[in-house]
Design a protein that fits this description.
By secondary structure, this protein is of the alpha/beta class. The protein is built from 24 helices and ten strands. It folds into four domains: about 170 residues, Rossmann fold; about 60 residues, Helicase, Ruva Protein, domain 3 (Orthogonal Bundle), CATH 1.10.8; about 110 residues, Up-down Bundle (Zinc Finger, Delta Prime, domain 3), CATH 1.20.272.10; about 100 residues, DnaA, N-terminal domain (GMP Synthetase, Chain A, domain 3). The longest helix has 19 residues.
Length: about 550
Amino acid sequence: MPAQALYLKYRPQSFDDVQGQEHITTTLKNALALNRIAHAYLFTGTRGTGKTSTARILAKAVNCLDPDVGKHPCNQCAICRAINQERLLDLVEIDAASNTGVDNIRDLRDKVDFRPNEARFKVYIIDEAHMLSNAAFNALLKTLEEPPPHVIFVLATTEVNRVPATITSRCQRFDFKRASLKELMGELGEIAKKEGMDLEPAALELIARQANGSFRDGTSLLDQLTAYSGDTITLKHVQVLLGAASRENIHAIVSGLVSRDVGRGIAALDEAVDAGADPRQVARDVIEYLRGVMLFAVNSDSMLNVGEEVQVEMRSLAAQFNAEQAARAIRLFSQAALELRHSASPTLPLEMALIEAMHDPAPAYAAVSAPQTRAAPAASSNPFVSNAPAAPKRAEPSFTRVATPEKKKGTSARPAPEPEEVVGGLSLAAIKGSWNDIIVRFQKGNKSSAALLRDAEPLALEKGELTVGFFYPLHQDRFKNDKNAVPQLSKLLSAMFGAPVQIKCIVSPKRAKMQAAQDDPLIRAGMNLGGKVSDIIDNDSEEE
């Protein structure tokens, strides 16, 4: 005979055994004491929080033969023992996932009128109730509203939004909450103690964290670990079974991201995968860690279920990393976790997310106010043209790319710049200052090509022709090959600045200079140590 699963062996048998749901168990016990049992209940919550177990306990409590109502269920009388042994005919459990049709509910409705065989009440527990069809819900509606006095319905569901309001309004609804990390650790630690397991505290915390608020998931994982490692369970055993990286690895990855140390972050990532960690699990762990840093950054750390040592680490990183940066990194790693399924490399999407998260997005500049020599264009339905006044002031985010300071050589003065072409409100300075706003407006009508403009910059404006330099030749080709992109950008700029603008796309000269700099032996040596070339400072404009 197969061994009994731990989650069945330690299934709650009384209201006092149900952990983390005191708001529900107290209400039900008071209803029993006052003899105010409802005819229909709706139990909703995530998996493994005790919905079906509580429904079975309620069935025992309303039928318990013990004269002391305060002891219901007693688990000693004939009715309680029959339910515990799953042989009471008056307790009917229906799996709605496999009995979704109207015929199944009609059959139930025909049998409802029969009185109980042994117990006082006939209790129907409909599990996964949201799986019933609309016709089945309609067939159940009248019976659920006015059942015979000897029938009690309990509907359990993980997706209460799929249960019709007509059903919900006829039930007393109870929402089961996810267990906290402390509650899970306490319950799993008690089970391990009863089973004679030697469980490391760090291993217990990781099991509870992996359970994600589900008592059943945590108990099942504990059961699986006993088969893997016997009665002695260490943190290493849990990490190997889950394919999880060590906490030190995850901290090193996030720490490298925060300090913008590419070499350290990728080394920690590769070390975790080489040690046997599943890249998808690594992505989930990094996301969870970054979430903690983000919550510390916005002073909402009370929501975190982590140990004191981890809290100290997260608080230290949050002092160097603001919430907006953390949120962007979380989005990047979430996308990388999805891309891992189709990636030829087991770590490439994570490495790309790590590197991209270290670089700030395109900066948001305050728009340059230019003198208006003509009336603003009339409101248009063009999606590229905002009806708001052109080039409004935009609030800068909390992290912006700082412009490279001008290089000075002794006290020599720089030659006066040539006068800039200004037509109406149009000038190169105005376009550069409003570049981020231009991209945002352009994105409303051409999202794919707008992404290419984030790696481009306005280079020159001459006789109404704006030269746009793309850092990558591929981006330049894709933008030019989009038959709508150039006309759309030209129309947008003309509408914003009140003057006709033509667009010329080239590869930015900075690309070649950047490549030449990277070929320098001294710079290449620095890059091998984790450095990077962030900008090129021209000397052409300086006096000799």
